[in-house]
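Give me a protein, keeping tokens residue-aligned:
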Amino acid sequence: MHRDEILKFIGSPDMTLAEAMRVIDENANGILFLADASDRLIGCVTDGDIRRFLLAGGKLEDDVKQAANLHPRVAYSVEEAQSLYDEKSFVVIPVLNQSNQIVEFYNGEGEREKTRGALKVPVVINAGGKGTRLEPFTKVLPKPLIPVGELPIIELIMKEYQTYQCDKFHIIVNYKRELMKAYFAESENRYDITWYDEASPLGTGGGLSLLKGKLNDTFFFANCDALLTANYERIMEFHKENHNVITMVCAYKNMTLPYGTVEMGVNGVIESMKEKPTMSFLTNTGIYVVEPEVVDDIEDGVPIGFPDIVAKQKEKGRKVAAFPVNESEWMDMGQLSELEKMRAKLFGD
């Protein structure tokens, strides 16, 4: 591995969790090794370590060492690293010299094929909106049929679920719904779809009232403009283990302000200044795991956003929770600029 590639896996133990997440996103291997100024290994942190730390109450501004594994598996030769890699499902094995300095990383001779469990749960997709932020495209096509590469966004979403053997789809439609149905009727790819027609717009959550009595099991509920590449098995395990009625999948978003910020005290005294600070926050991806009793509580024919449904369930004392994922695991095409980013990420330039 070239030195530039090695550096992609190494971070400072003094960085924050938010900074570590950005580096993990960039190396695209889900792991970061922490080393001192002489490249001596201190520990490692994975995206899963960070998620568990945050779910336990940690903050993005906390020191990354608080979430790190300080005793990672290591090798002292490439041959030993290869043996460890083949023996267990490690992503990357650090190779050290006798001074415990990192000299190499071993991540296999090629990409290891993803193994995904069979979740076999139904998927409900809300595809009834007008997609006004994607005009003028949506003047001609409904948002779910806007192509990203060779396939429309809704079909990319469905194919991702199918990798977990989630093959039963319930699709709520309204705007240009006949085009939607015609596309799938004529498609070479066959899907098990049940359609639900809104007589009038019911928002991002109200359309679920059309499915009363149709769902008896836990299901995924998704908007038709977001593609999630996170581990769906972990999301479902988290939902079940915590006995949630709703689990909202949320992504950590990092934004760098283009301006310097100032905090002002009494009489205009400058308390602090930050030059182009980075803000980190958790944002709703519009993807959820839901229990069927939630559907029974939705009023028929009344428009409502799904976040309002979440709030109502919380008011009832039912357990709702957020499952955090990395920013890189969520792609949203709600705006034209984001549509192009999604296409470039999935298919390259």
About this structure: The radius of gyration is 23 Å.
